[in-house]
Structure formats: structure tokens, C-alpha cells
């Protein structure tokens, strides 16, 4: 049984979400993958409004997306973030993918990335998405291993914003 559950961000979780963000800052990391721009936000309520609106009303990169927090059941600690795009544009099919994810620095290399991704894949299945695309930087070994451990097949490599990328597809049906 999974140690994690996926929950949607909410005002109730503000303190825990900001603590999660602070850990990235403390580790001098400049991005929080799968968080809908949490790293760049200066106002929690504005960030939460964006997270909620892109799922239902507004579009991000011309598609709807759902953002989740991975929470460890035993202590309710936020372990990671994961975002699921409901569809892909032509551009996202080249350089974006359906799913972006991250694990907080102190919880890496413990298998949480795989658990988190498997949970998101179940949501994608429920949404009737037949297959999902994941991209990662070529040298992000942890992310590529996570994708492969969940059935990801490397189908392409390219350059995006000066970085080498790998593209993985996971068939859900």
C-alpha cells in the first residue's frame, strides 16, 4: 500500500505548503516542478487562485491542468508536487508533456517519486487519457528512472531552452 496520498492545494494547507516551498529555497533550488509556479509566487492566495482556476476555468499553456500535493499518510507531511495536464498542444507534445513532478530535497531517493507518479497515472486513467508524456532533462537520472519504473518508454530526445531533454510515453490502456 502506498504511503502517499494526493490532495489538492487549499487554504487550510497554506502553512505546510509555504514550509515545503521554503525547503527548496533553503537548498538553493530555483524551481519546484509540478507546483504550478509555487517557487515564483509571492502571494499564497494568488497562487492558490491560479491553481484552482487552471483546472476548471482558465488555461495554462492552452490546456487545463490539475495540481496535487503528495502527502505522507503517517505524518501529513508534504513530500512532493505533481501536475497533470488534461491534454497536450502541439508545442507541449514536443517540449512539455502531461505530467511534471518534484520531491522535496530532504525526501529524495526514498521511492516517493514513483509512488507519486503512480497515483497521478491512476487519475489520468480515470480522466480517460490513453497515454501520458513525461519530459525530463537528460541528466536528471532520478526523474528518468521514475518515468521508466512506471512503464515509461524513451521515445525521443531533443533540445529545449538550451538543455537536452528525454521524452517518455506511458501507455495507460
Query: What name is given to the CATH topology?
Result: Aminopeptidase
Radius of gyration, in angstroms, nearest whole number: 15 Å
Shape: globular
N-to-C span: 22 Å
Strand order of the largest sheet: 1-2-3-4
Binned strand content:
25-35%
The helix/strand class is alpha+beta
Looking at CATH, the homologous superfamily is Gcn5-related N-acetyltransferase (GNAT)
Measured as a percent range, the helix fraction is: 25-40%
Could you name the ranges where pLDDT drops below 50 across 5 or more consecutive residues? none
Main sheet record: 4 strands, antiparallel
| Overall CATH class | Alpha Beta
Supply the number of helical segments.
5
- Give the count of structural domains: 1
* Total number of strands: 7
Give the SSE order as H and E letters.
Answer: EHHEEHEHEHEE
CATH architecture term: 3-Layer(aba) Sandwich
Overall pLDDT, averaged?
93
What's a concise summary of this model?
With 173 residues, the chain is of the alpha+beta class. It is 32% helix and 28% strand.
Walk me through the structure.
It is built from five helices and seven strands, in the order E-H-H-E-E-H-E-H-E-H-E-E. The strands form two sheets. A four-stranded antiparallel sheet has the order 1-2-3-4, sandwiched between helices. A three-stranded antiparallel sheet has the order 5-7-6. With 173 residues, the chain is of the alpha+beta class. It has one domain: 3-Layer(aba) Sandwich (Aminopeptidase). It is globular and about 40 Å long.
Question: Keywords for this structure?
Answer:
173 residues, alpha+beta, Aminopeptidase, 7 strands, 32% helix, 28% strand, globular
Amino acid at each position: 500500500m502506498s504511503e502517499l496520498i494526493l490532495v489538492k492545494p487549499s487554504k487550510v494547507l497554506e502553512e505546510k505548503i509555504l514550509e515545503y516551498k521554503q525547503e527548496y529555497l533553503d537548498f538553493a533550488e530555483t524551481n519546484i516542478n509540478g507546483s504550478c509556479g509555487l517557487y515564483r509566487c509571492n502571494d499564497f492566495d494568488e497562487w492558490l487562485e491560479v491553481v484552482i482556476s487552471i483546472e476548471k476555468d482558465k488555461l495554462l499553456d492552452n490546456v487545463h491542468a490539475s495540481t496535487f500535493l503528495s502527502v505522507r499518510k503517517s505524518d501529513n507531511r508534504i513530500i512532493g508536487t505533481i501536475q497533470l495536464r488534461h491534454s497536450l498542444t502541439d508545442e507541449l507534445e514536443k517540449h512539455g508533456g502531461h505530467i511534471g513532478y518534484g520531491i522535496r530535497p530532504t525526501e529524495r531517493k526514498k521511492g516517493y517519486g514513483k509512488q507519486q507518479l503512480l497515483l497521478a497515472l491512476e487519475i489520468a486513467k480515470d480522466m480517460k487519457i490513453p497515454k501520458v508524456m513525461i519530459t525530463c532533462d537528460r541528466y536528471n537520472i532520478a526523474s528518468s528512472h521514475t518515468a521508466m519504473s512506471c512503464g515509461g518508454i524513451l521515445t525521443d530526445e531533443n533540445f529545449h531552452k538550451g538543455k537536452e531533454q528525454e521524452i517518455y510515453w506511458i501507455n495507460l490502456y
